[in-house]
Amino acid sequence: VMLSARNSFYNLILKPRGWRESNRLRIMLATALVFFCLGLALVAGGNLGVVLTYNGSVFGTPVCYIAPGIMYLQLPRSSQKPVWRWAAAITATCGIVFGIFGVYQATVQSLAPPPPHPAVALVPVLAVPR
């Protein structure tokens, strides 16, 4: 996922602005993405589940929904079909919406109080009457 996120960031943001891909740039992008994820872990209080949730919503959504649609739209128009062009645009748009919703949902879940431990619910059942 990290490789795809790094390449997508480069191709969609840096390459159009004239940046040249190099080993140094790749290492810097990968390091920045790792620090971003680790920063989320620190903000979340060290809960790995929250980090993985953010990682999936931030990096998984572009890989699964946005990047394929954008890549199809980058093909020459002569090799595209109108139906697939619309489908690619809709998929990329839905991916943006899913990504925003995923980050929102991850934030709501990380701020919610944890549910009670299942053993607490069993205590009255296991209590011996006097």
Shape: flat
Question: Roughly how many Å is the radius of gyration?
Answer: 21 Å
Helix content: over 70%
Strand content: under 5%
- Element-by-element helix/strand order: HHHHH
Distance between the ends = 58 Å
Count the helices. How many?
5
Q: Biggest sheet: strands, sense, closure? A: none
Structural class by sheet pairing and helices = mainly alpha
Kindly state the number of beta strands.
Answer: 0
Which whole number gives the mean pLDDT?
81
Describe this structure in words.
The structure is a single chain. This protein is mainly α. It has helices spanning 2-14, 23-43, 48-73, 82-111, 118-126. It is flat, with a radius of gyration of 21 Å.
Topology, element by element:
Blueprint: H1 2-14, H2 23-43, H3 48-73, H4 82-111, H5 118-126
Key features?
single chain; flat; mainly alpha; 130 residues
What's this, in brief?
This protein is mainly α. Helix content is 76%, strand content 0%.
